[in-house]
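Chapter review: from sequence to fold.
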Amino acid sequence: MSTEPARTLETFENPNPERDYTIRMEIPEFTCLCPKTGQPDFATLHLEYTPDQRCVELKSLKLYVWSFRDEGAFHEAITNRILNDLVAATQPRFMKLTAHFHVRGGIWTTVEVEHHGR
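The C-alpha coordinate string follows.
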Protein backbone atom coordinates (compact mmCIF):
# COMPACT_ATOMS: atom_id res chain seq x y z
CA MET A 1 0.00 0.00 0.00
CA SER A 2 1.58 3.25 -1.10
CA THR A 3 1.47 6.40 0.94
CA GLU A 4 0.85 9.79 -0.63
CA PRO A 5 1.28 13.32 0.73
CA ALA A 6 -1.95 14.77 2.15
CA ARG A 7 -3.13 18.03 3.69
CA THR A 8 -5.46 16.24 6.13
CA LEU A 9 -4.42 16.29 9.78
CA GLU A 10 -6.01 13.46 11.72
CA THR A 11 -6.43 13.63 15.48
CA PHE A 12 -7.31 11.36 18.37
CA GLU A 13 -8.81 11.95 21.80
CA ASN A 14 -6.41 13.22 24.43
CA PRO A 15 -6.06 10.33 26.90
CA ASN A 16 -5.59 12.76 29.83
CA PRO A 17 -7.49 16.00 29.09
CA GLU A 18 -7.71 16.84 32.80
CA ARG A 19 -3.92 17.31 33.00
CA ASP A 20 -1.55 19.83 31.43
CA TYR A 21 1.34 18.04 29.77
CA THR A 22 3.66 18.85 26.89
CA ILE A 23 4.16 16.96 23.65
CA ARG A 24 7.34 17.75 21.73
CA MET A 25 8.14 16.57 18.22
CA GLU A 26 11.15 17.07 16.00
CA ILE A 27 10.51 16.87 12.26
CA PRO A 28 13.92 16.92 10.55
CA GLU A 29 12.89 16.41 6.92
CA PHE A 30 10.67 19.40 6.05
CA THR A 31 11.10 20.59 2.48
CA CYS A 32 9.43 23.31 0.44
CA LEU A 33 10.56 25.44 -2.52
CA CYS A 34 11.94 28.95 -2.56
CA PRO A 35 9.21 31.07 -4.21
CA LYS A 36 11.84 33.22 -5.95
CA THR A 37 14.23 30.59 -7.36
CA GLY A 38 12.30 27.32 -7.18
CA GLN A 39 15.23 25.72 -5.36
CA PRO A 40 14.49 23.44 -2.41
CA ASP A 41 14.49 24.83 1.12
CA PHE A 42 15.15 22.38 3.94
CA ALA A 43 14.16 22.82 7.58
CA THR A 44 13.86 21.05 10.87
CA LEU A 45 10.52 21.74 12.52
CA HIS A 46 10.16 21.66 16.29
CA LEU A 47 6.56 21.34 17.46
CA GLU A 48 5.62 21.76 21.11
CA TYR A 49 2.08 21.77 22.42
CA THR A 50 -0.19 21.26 25.38
CA PRO A 51 -3.25 19.41 24.11
CA ASP A 52 -6.78 20.08 25.21
CA GLN A 53 -9.27 17.50 23.87
CA ARG A 54 -7.40 16.38 20.73
CA CYS A 55 -3.85 15.25 19.82
CA VAL A 56 -2.38 15.16 16.32
CA GLU A 57 -1.86 11.68 14.86
CA LEU A 58 1.78 11.16 13.80
CA LYS A 59 1.35 9.46 10.42
CA SER A 60 -1.05 12.13 9.23
CA LEU A 61 1.42 14.78 10.43
CA LYS A 62 4.19 13.10 8.41
CA LEU A 63 2.03 13.04 5.27
CA TYR A 64 0.93 16.64 5.88
CA VAL A 65 4.55 17.83 6.17
CA TRP A 66 5.43 15.87 3.04
CA SER A 67 2.68 17.70 1.10
CA PHE A 68 4.72 20.95 1.06
CA ARG A 69 7.64 19.42 -0.85
CA ASP A 70 6.67 20.94 -4.22
CA GLU A 71 5.15 24.19 -2.95
CA GLY A 72 6.85 27.57 -3.14
CA ALA A 73 6.56 29.58 0.07
CA PHE A 74 8.42 32.12 2.13
CA HIS A 75 9.69 30.77 5.46
CA GLU A 76 7.52 33.12 7.50
CA ALA A 77 4.37 32.28 5.58
CA ILE A 78 4.80 28.52 5.62
CA THR A 79 5.60 28.39 9.34
CA ASN A 80 2.49 30.41 10.21
CA ARG A 81 0.36 28.33 7.85
CA ILE A 82 1.46 25.06 9.42
CA LEU A 83 0.76 26.38 12.92
CA ASN A 84 -2.68 27.63 11.82
CA ASP A 85 -3.55 24.21 10.36
CA LEU A 86 -2.36 22.36 13.48
CA VAL A 87 -4.31 24.72 15.77
CA ALA A 88 -7.45 24.30 13.65
CA ALA A 89 -7.15 20.51 13.85
CA THR A 90 -6.32 20.16 17.56
CA GLN A 91 -7.49 23.34 19.36
CA PRO A 92 -4.60 23.07 21.86
CA ARG A 93 -4.17 24.95 25.12
CA PHE A 94 -0.77 26.07 23.81
CA MET A 95 1.25 25.40 20.68
CA LYS A 96 4.62 26.60 19.42
CA LEU A 97 6.24 25.81 16.10
CA THR A 98 9.88 26.62 15.46
CA ALA A 99 11.25 26.20 11.94
CA HIS A 100 15.04 26.10 11.60
CA PHE A 101 15.73 26.57 7.89
CA HIS A 102 19.10 25.46 6.54
CA VAL A 103 21.54 28.05 5.27
CA ARG A 104 20.63 29.74 1.99
CA GLY A 105 22.91 32.43 0.55
CA GLY A 106 24.93 32.50 3.77
CA ILE A 107 21.86 33.17 5.95
CA TRP A 108 20.27 30.83 8.50
CA THR A 109 16.59 31.57 9.14
CA THR A 110 14.59 30.54 12.19
CA VAL A 111 10.89 31.34 12.43
CA GLU A 112 9.03 30.78 15.72
CA VAL A 113 5.26 31.16 16.05
CA GLU A 114 2.95 30.55 19.02
CA HIS A 115 -0.71 30.03 19.77
CA HIS A 116 -2.17 30.58 23.22
CA GLY A 117 -5.57 28.92 23.64
CA ARG A 118 -7.94 28.99 26.54
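Two observations follow directly from the output. Residues 41 and 104 are 8 Å apart (CA to CA). DSSP finds two helices and six strands in the chain.
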